[in-house]
Amino acid sequence: MHSESEETLSTAKAARLLEVGPSTVKRWADEGMLPCIRTAGGHRRFRRGDIERFLGERGGVDEGLIDVWLDVLLGDEDQHRVGALLLAARAEHGAWWRVADAMGPVIEELGQRWAGGRITVLQEHMASERLARGLACNSCAQDLAVVPESPCCLLLAADGDEHTLGLSLAEICLREAGWSCRWAGRRTPADDVEAVVSRGQIQMVALSASAASTDARKLGRQYRELVEAARPRSVMIVLGGSGAWPEDPSYGHRLRSFRELSRLLSRLSS
């Protein structure tokens, strides 16, 4: 039961709490997904308790959704079908960072199935490529236009890490926030990365390490070498993924979800 004195929020304030656009909040309300009340003038108002419950319900891992996505990725769907499904997920969740966080358990389960011998190396590679191509198709990342003077992020995999799906998800979140991206990807020599940083054409380096990157000393060394190049030029470093990065880096940010990335980008733009 709701208290009559419970705080109510405008659509704009609700959108800020939910970290989506006002139009998404209105659509969720009109579809009955998010409870709202109407003022005498017809404006939507949202109870804070309803918003908190909505966030909690959408934050859990949906095992059924994991199975659905794995069936798609391990099946014969092409990247255009995968792209269409990703767009449907974007429409449902209201922001690409929410889609990215929802895909995290899917990617984790894919890796666990490979590690446990339930799928072959080829199946794991094909599923990963199918998702990456779906994210890169015209209807997803490429349609997120950014202006020429937008800030730029260099996307880089940790030394020896072959997994770049996290970077693909980071790219679509960055582009939605108005950032352009450059791909360094995997196996990029440190000297080449430092040269890009030194030219002053990027504002951030996003380093991704999957759960397979367990060598904390190796990751720490890569991080420290990058800091030497990035700090004098005020280039931000973001450490993402499940790898053994420094827990509390002296420079930059250690992020564990795309929600945290979204919040960081919001702070930088304010």
Discrete helix count: 11
SSE-based structural type: alpha/beta
CATH class of the largest domain: Alpha Beta
Element pattern in H and E: EHHEEHHHHHEHEHEHEEH
Count of domains: 3
Strand order of the largest sheet: 5-4-6-7-8
CATH superfamily of the largest domain: Cobalamin-binding domain
If you consult CATH, what is the topology of the largest domain?
Rossmann fold
Which CATH architecture of the largest domain would you pick?
3-Layer(aba) Sandwich
Beta-strand percent range: 5-15%
End-to-end CA span:
37 Å
Mass-distribution shape: globular
Query: Quick one: how many beta strands?
Result: 8
Main sheet overview = 5 strands, parallel
Question: How would you explain this protein's 3D organization?
Answer:
- The chain has 270 residues and is α/β, with parallel strands linked by helices.
- The chain contains eleven helices and eight strands.
- The mean pLDDT is 86.
- The two termini are 37 Å apart.
- Helix 1 (11-18) crosses helix 2 (22-30), helix 5 (79-93) crosses helix 7 and helix 7 runs parallel beside helix 8.
- The strands form two sheets. The chain has a five-stranded parallel sheet, sandwiched between helices.
- It has three domains: 8-59, Multidrug-efflux Transporter Regulator, Chain: A, Domain 2, CATH 1.10.1660.10; 63-136; 146-269, Cobalamin-binding domain (Rossmann fold).
- 51% of the residues lie in helices and 12% in strands.
